[in-house]
User: Fold this.
Amino acid sequence: MEDGFSLKQSRVCIVGLGLMGGSLAKALRGHVADLTGIDDDPATCRDATAQGLTRQADGKLSSAIEADVVVLATPVRTIIRLIGELGDYLRPGTLLIDLGSVKGPVVRAMNGLPVSVQAIGGHPMCGKAVSGLAHADGALYRGAPFVLCRSDRTTPDAVALARQMVAAIGAQAIEVEAAHHDRVVAVTSGLPYALAAALTLVAGVQAEDDAMIWTLAASGFRDTSRLAGSDPTMMADILQTNAPAVLDALEEAQAHLTTLVSILRSNKSEDLHATLSRAQAYRHAWEKERGNR
Amino acid sequence: MEDGFSLKQSRVCIVGLGLMGGSLAKALRGHVADLTGIDDDPATCRDATAQGLTRQADGKLSSAIEADVVVLATPVRTIIRLIGELGDYLRPGTLLIDLGSVKGPVVRAMNGLPVSVQAIGGHPMCGKAVSGLAHADGALYRGAPFVLCRSDRTTPDAVALARQMVAAIGAQAIEVEAAHHDRVVAVTSGLPYALAAALTLVAGVQAEDDAMIWTLAASGFRDTSRLAGSDPTMMADILQTNAPAVLDALEEAQAHLTTLVSILRSNKSEDLHATLSRAQAYRHAWEKERGNR
Assistant:
């Protein structure tokens, strides 16, 4: 990446043409010099090119050699593997960025790249309940926070180009240290998912013997359990690659539940009201911070 | 209540003119012979009458003596207390019904009423994040399941009249035994609320030292934590009056979380995928059953 290199002049290669990669291709159209794709699935490659999302797409990692910017839009464990494999194919100055939901292991892998490569971790905080190129949406990133985590391979030029890309797709760049990011998302994403899964398992097991469970499960159940509908492969990937922070968050949640059980069992009305009021105050604090419900 | 007594000919008195009682008054307009209200708050009584929701409203329980149908729309513990106090004021044949979220203790209190009184437990499965007469909505009950639980004071005529009322407000009557109802709602309402509160407490405590928590908390956190914003007084009432069933549900949820922790800690990928897939399958089963997401 030369000084003053701009997104507009960049040839971008997206590895992984699913919901996130496909949406990025749509969002980047007109903002870059060239768009190519790499995906294991030949049908996906054909569709991406037929729809004009990529000029060309194939299954060969070596195709990344022509790119100025390579975006890894695969599951986290695949991202980590690809960073190791891509080292040989990236020309000096190429910017490598990923879209994975966990950043510590990704940034550590980036630290092992040849010093000539520029690499920065990325995590756009958006998604959909569905997956695959067929659901790609050029507006997916609009207004979303897009976390950037520097690695040992991140120069100021790399940050500047990554920020150009984030701005081009309408997202908002937020720079955070990778370990910090992972602790936070364990609480804001991993824990909600785990609690939704636990709720759904309790209800589902009982529903096998009692049809009334699904009949009376209404909007409260719907919202609290929504994340349990997420793709298990993707979620296992996210939980396992961020296991230490997720385990910390789970243990804290269990401690709060144990306190609640103890308060309920001993029928301590004042303690119960104080605990529930505190939860409500925190929820209102978040609503105020985010300006939405 | 005489044979063939109809809702259209009934004088209805609603005790508690908050969101639920006020919405019921709006929904019942034109379907009943007379509508009066009882509420502790004089301003609420004035508003209800000024808005034409009730012909008159005051704070005296004795005003219920003129009614053919008395609806208790207060928190659960108040409902239980009022059933005991109302025994003296209800004329023979009067139908007493409540809108409380817990049914076992309510139906047990109804069983202690004079034999001349008709009484049936009710639980409309709907609500709003806000409370009070100002948010009353005549469409609140439309399409919602409305649970009916018979007591020892429930004759076939009482069931028929209660069903007329449920139909008049556009809800769908579902008859369930009270203890069964309470076990089910502990899983479908109490548990989701408790998990949302635990999530919000974990995030809120960390957010006090780390502003990034609220910045990165997105739609997954929003939905999973939504119920934590509920009124703590109302929720404490619901959890405490249904404590045995809520405690059972909480213990099952904790068992699932403990399993998840153990799987994550030992990095058992196959077990993790199987558990998360099971949760996803249950969530999809509910979506299929309810036809919504």
